[in-house]
Structure formats: structure tokens, C-alpha cells
Amino acid sequence: MFGKIKYISDNNAIVELNKEGNVIANLMNLHVVFESGQDKLLGEVKNIDDETVKIELLGEFQGERFIAGTIKKPTLTSTLRVINDEELNIIMGSNNPNSLYIGKSPIYANRSIYAGINDLFSNHLAIFGNSGSGKSCSVSRIIQNIFLNQNFLAFNANLFIFDAYGEYKNAFRGINQINPNYQYKFLTTNPTEDTDMPLHIPVYLLTNDDIALLLNADNHAQLTIIERTMKLAKLFSQTTPEIERLKDHLIAKAIQSVLFSNQNAAGKKNDIFTIIASCSTANFSMNTEIKGIGYTRRFADCFGIDSKGEFGESVLINEYIASHLDDELEATIPMPEKPFFTLKDIARALDFALIGEGFLTNRIMQDSAIILKVRLHSIINGSNAKIFEVNEYMALEQYISSLIILNNRRSQIVNINLEDIDDNLAKVIVKIISKMTFDFAKSRKIRASIPFHLIIEEAHRYVVADNDKFLLGYNIFERIAKEGRKYGVIIDLISQRPVDISETVVAQMSNFLVLKMTHPKDLEYIEKMLPNVSSDIIEKLNSLQSGTLVSFGNAFKIPLLIKMDLPDPLPYSSNCNVIERWKGTNN
Questions:
Q1: 436-451 in b/e burial notation, b at 16+ Cβ within 10 A?
Q2: 223 lies in the same domain as 165
Q3: Is the pLDDT of residue 514 over 90?
Q4: Is pLDDT of 310 > 60?
């Protein structure tokens, strides 16, 4: 079969071909071993012509280990043979308690390919491929294989699937039939079946950064407003006399600022009435009675303008305002340990935030504030408000638990369906839940004691280089990509457009499963971003069959072609059956 070695370059060897029957057709992509003394070097057949075979060098075997890389080169006198079963087990894995079945080799008949569970699932993973290449089926099959594995019970698995189209529901809904200890949970913004659970996100658990994302903030002035608003929302969640006094103080201080401004009386009156219209209390409303010496006045009547262009009751007004000022009060009120508030409470707090701290006289701040108010009220009055409706207080740990628990049992797969909301809100929800999960994992006393996998379908919609880094100083996906493995939070990206995903996140991926890809920009991006990808792998991606992928990374000794089994059951990812829908029936 193989003749003598003609010459050896940096990564390739050219070997003479001894033609034997139809051997040429069977050599392509086979792995071969160069033996010389104690050295056993691995190569893969890349090209064949009438006279020679071109073999790419991949690494060397050292006992039962394989070391990738081409530091050693075969000698011209090395013997060359096809890889044997024992060596295939080393590079393709074998069935053992620490491995997971991935799929079949299309090169070696009946040869199964396994990956180390820790190698594959304790590192970030990316699955790329064109639409229709088999991404959804491959993801479904791999996850099904986890729970079909007879070597161990994955009872404590926490797989959060952010499902852009609701296509994984069918693939995992019967997981309890594999083992009654397993459970699947389907969270959605629009429940349609009895087993669907509504997705809720507690507003009181959101940080200032989360609110900035939710309200689509785009400048740092808005961050200042949000910070003040969230502080007041937490304080106002308490119903105590001190809080009512604080509200009176904030209104009084805002009115005092207007009274001391250089506006004319008419302008001052308009601003004061605007303050009362947006922020009123029992002591500050249009109908509040203010007592003078021997008489009373309605608050609104105190602002009549006399012939000198002044307020006729300026003395009474100033005395009343001064009686409600207490600059030390806010600093003495402790922040509540369990603040419970809603989006409407945040809107109320935003009104109070905007009457103080110079916001009224700062037009830039006013413009930024109006944008936030409009966006907040559009959520409150829209159909998506129900997502943020939670009736009782939960700490972060309880909320994460509520995502997982169903019928007093833990769910290993939590499918978060986002198909009924627009992309902007879906992106924010993915970021918020990912950040909550990361914060929860970081708070554990034993690091990485509760691993989470964030499986993000259509990752090019969500994991992008957007305004977060400029506005907040970080992007949560980039932070998880860099630090998540230490705390057991793993990102699994699924996308048909890797070029649109944040480069920082892609650079942190340790394993790749790449199905057929044909777009030149995506192929160029993969070759540029991944240093261990050769031009030969890029060429393979153009011609792969549906359901066949190239795997490489920490979990694979060498890049391997894998033919994936079809999942059972299938996800909802097939094309529309046009023939059936075009028929002239009433279906």
C-alpha cells in the first residue's frame, strides 16, 4: 500500500503509493502511523495522486497517550501503516464512566466517537453551521446522549436552554421516560399547554446595570438617574413614617430649588405644579390645606401672583416648605434587607428622582430622563409587563431554585422559550438570567459546586459586541466567557453566523463542533479566530453532509469528522412541508 517516504516538510510527508486494487478510494482521510524505533507518529491522508500520498502530521503516541503537535518528525526510513484499533481508541475515545458518546465516524465503519465529559462540558463550547446543516438535531442528540448514558445519573445537571424558536420542546419533553429521576421544564412568555410554565423575572432582584439594559440606556447620564431611582425604589418599599417624611422632604427640597431659581413667578409656578403633579403626598398636593395665622389656604391657591409679580403667600409657602426639610433624614434610614417593589414602583421612584439633584434645571438630564420614562411606561403598559410580575419576595438563591424546581422536583433541563417576544427584549432577558446565574454561582462558598450550562440558541442575536462595554464597562457574556469556568458557569453557543458573535467570547471557546458552512466571511472568521484550525478543516466545512460535523478542541485529541445520530424525538426544526400546505384541503 505505502512505499518509501520521498520527503518530509514541516507538517507533511510525501509517500510513494503502491497501487493495490481500489485502495486509492479507501485511503482518503485515513489515519496512518509512522514507526521508527520507539517513536510512533500520527498522520492523516490529505491528498492522493497517481504516484504519491500527501500525509499531514498530527502528533505522536506516547504509550496510551496522544500528544498533538509536530515537534518530532518521522525519518525517511520510518515504516508506515494504517492506524490500529488500540490507537483509534486513544484518539477517538472509548466507552467508560468518564466519557460521553458523540456520534459515529464516517471514515471507520462502526467506529463510535467519545469525548471526555469533563473535557467537553467543563469548557465553553461552540456549535456553528448553516441553516439546515443539522445544528438543532446535533444539539438535541448530544443532550439526549447525556441522559441516555448508562454509566452515570446526571441528576444534578443544570442545563438552561435559551430557545429562540421553541424548537427544543419536543426533543426533551419525554426525558422522564429515560429515567423517572429526570425532569424537563418549559418556561415561556406565552404558555399554551398545561405543562408550560410562565417565565417571571423579579424586578427587585435587578441591579442598576440590569435596569439600564432593560430600559435600553445609551448614555452615562441615564446611569446616574437609574442609580438614584433604584435607591429610592428600595427605600420606598418600606411603609414607615420616616419614608413618608422622606418623600415630603424630597418634594419640599425640589420646590425650594425652584423658588430660589432666577425664573419669574409664572415659570416658578409651572415648575412647582409640575412637581406636585408627578410627586404628591398627603402633605403636598394641590388640595393640601396650609395653615397660616388665623386662616388656611389650599396649596394651589398659595401661588397666586400679585401686582409686583411675586407670590402673594410667599412667606406662608417658605415656612411650610422649611417645616418639611430634613437633609439628614435620608442618611439615617437603613436600606431594607428584603426590598419588594414592582415596575410601577420604579416608575414612582423615577418621578421622585427627577425632581431632585438638579435634574429639573438640567435640560440634558431631562432629555435623558424622558427617554427612560417613555421606555419604562411602554413596558408597564405593554403585554410583556407580566414577565416582571412576581407576587412575593425571593432572594437570588430562591429565584434560581424556582427556575429549576417543578412540582417540588429539580429539573435537569430548563427550556426558556423566547419566540413570542422581540429580539431586543429577548436579548435583555438572556443577559439578565445569565448574569443572575453567574452572580449566584460566584456567591457559593465552595467554588463551582453547582455547575450551570447556558445553552444559547441563535447566539448571534444575543452574544454580540454591543453598547454594554461602553455604558457599563463590561459585557456579561464576555465576563462569563473569561471567568465562568472557575465558578462552574459554562457558555454553549449555537449559531449560523459566527462572524456576528463577540470576538472576545469566541476566543474563549475551548471546543468546537462545526457543521457545513459555506459563507466566505464565516469561513474566514473561523480560520482567523481559531489558531488550531487548518486550511484543510476549512475546506471540509464546505462539503459536509447534513448532520456531519468537524470536532476539535480540548475534548478531542485531533480534529475528527463525526456523523451525528438523529435525535429521538426530533426538535421542531424541519422546513415547512410546502406540498402538504399547498394542497387544496381544509387542514
A1: bbbbbbeeeeeebebb
A2: no
A3: yes
A4: yes
Look at residue 183 and tell me if it is in a domain. Answer: yes
- Residue 295 CA to residue 290 CA, distance in Å, equals 9
Q: Which CATH number covers residue 11?
A: 2.40.30
Q: Give the whole-number percent of the chain exceeding pLDDT 70.
A: 95
CA distances from 237 to 25, 234, 344, 349 (A): 75, 5, 12, 10
The answer to whether residue 227 scores a pLDDT higher than 90 is yes
Task: Please indicate, yes or no, if residue 584 is contained in any of the structural domains.
Answer: no
Cell of 23: 485502495
For residue 311, give every residue at least 6 positions away whose Cβ sits within 8 Å of its Cβ, in sequence order, or none.
265, 268, 269, 302, 303, 304, 305, 317
Give the pLDDT of residue 539. 75
The answer to whether residue 25 scores a pLDDT higher than 60 is no
CA-CA distance, 4 to 17, in Å (whole number)?
A: 8
pTM of the full predicted structure? 0.91
Give the separation between CA 222 and CA 111, rounded to whole angstroms: 59
Structural domains in the chain (count): 3
Give the span between the Cα atoms of 19 and 5, in whole angstroms: 15
Helix (H) or strand (E) holding 289: strand 289-291
Cell of 253: 427640597
Query: What is the pLDDT at residue 369?
Result: 87
Whether 7 and 142 map to the same domain: the answer is: no
Other beta carbons less than 10 A from residue 131's beta carbon:
10
Give the model's pLDDT for residue 55.
92
**Residue 474 belongs to some domain of the structure:** yes
Residue range 215-231: mean pLDDT, rounded: 93
Does the residue 580 lie in any domain? Answer: no
Same-domain check for residues 233 and 373: yes
Name the phi and psi angles at 484, rounded to 5.
-60, -35
For 410-430, what is each residue's pLDDT tens digit?
Answer: 999 999 999 999 999 999 999
What is the C-alpha to C-alpha distance for residues 262 and 212, in angstroms, rounded to an integer? 34
Which DSSP helix (H) or strand (E) runs through 492? Answer: strand 489-495
The pLDDT assigned to 306 comes to 85
Contacts of 364 (CB under 8 A, 6+ apart): 221
At 513 the pLDDT is 94
Name the maximum alpha-carbon separation found in the chain. Answer: 120
481 vs 470: CA distance, rounded Å: 18
Range(s) of the domain holding residue 184: 100-105+110-202+394-573
